[in-house]
Amino acid sequence: MSRILVVEDDPAIAALLSDYLAHAGLKPETCADGLQAWQLFERAGPWSAVVLDLMLPGLDGLQLCQRIRAGSAVPILMATARIDEFDRLLGLEIGADDYLCKPYSPREVVARVRALLRRAEGRLVGQAATELPGTGGFSHDEAGQRLGWRGQWLNLTPVEYRLLRSLLQQPGRVFERATLLDALHADAFRDVSDRVIDSHIKNLRRKLEALLGQATAIQAVYGVGYRFTPPLGA
């Protein structure tokens, strides 16, 4: 059964979300404090997904999201009353996979969580991979939603997976940020600056450099966007 960590300091909302998630066949656990939630995440894992409020005592939602994302690709849904673009953009930049603004329907939360779980579970299926031509050895497991290089799979968030998949499908093409943003197909990314792409590209570069052992194959094109170039010696 999928375990969902619900971090929400409003007892009524936490109880409501917990009831709906449990009714949907999931196993929710709630926490009202950001610092305690971080300790619970570390101590009582693994978790299938996290539903995270932004305004929390102890450690706010942005800080908690950043800590979680630094060491885990667990899907994160941010649910909050702070709806201004800065907060939405910042939340997505530091690694949230989806964003839902209060007031929201608990049914919508369940639907978003299920969608994140389907994508995450798909990455674990492990079907046969297809080598991507012109990429210097990168492979794509479409059923499992995984990308790898020479048999080594990258540990990617759903957003990172979709970005890298787009770049690998057309090596050498320069993608504008707005085009990459459209490729995410996520409601959470509507009405936010396309600069949110820059933060995710930064994380992708770090992971690719660790895998390839050389400078990243994702190159910035000033004033336009990004392109993928096969690694040297591939």
UniProtKB/TrEMBL annotation:
Residues 3-117 form the Response regulatory domain. It comes from Inhella inkyongensis. The keyword DNA-binding applies. This is Two-component system response regulator BaeR. Residues 130-230 form the OmpR/PhoB-type domain. Residues 130-230 bind DNA. InterPro entries: CheY-like_superfamily, OmpR/PhoB-type_DNA-bd, Sig_transdc_resp-reg_C-effctor, Sig_transdc_resp-reg_receiver, WalR-like, WH-like_DNA-bd_sf. Keywords: DNA-binding, Phosphoprotein. Signal peptide: none annotated. GO terms for cellular component: cytosol; protein-DNA complex. GO terms for biological process: regulation of DNA-templated transcription. GO terms for molecular function: phosphorelay response regulator activity; transcription cis-regulatory region binding. The modification 4-aspartylphosphate is found at D53. Pfam families: Response_reg, Trans_reg_C.
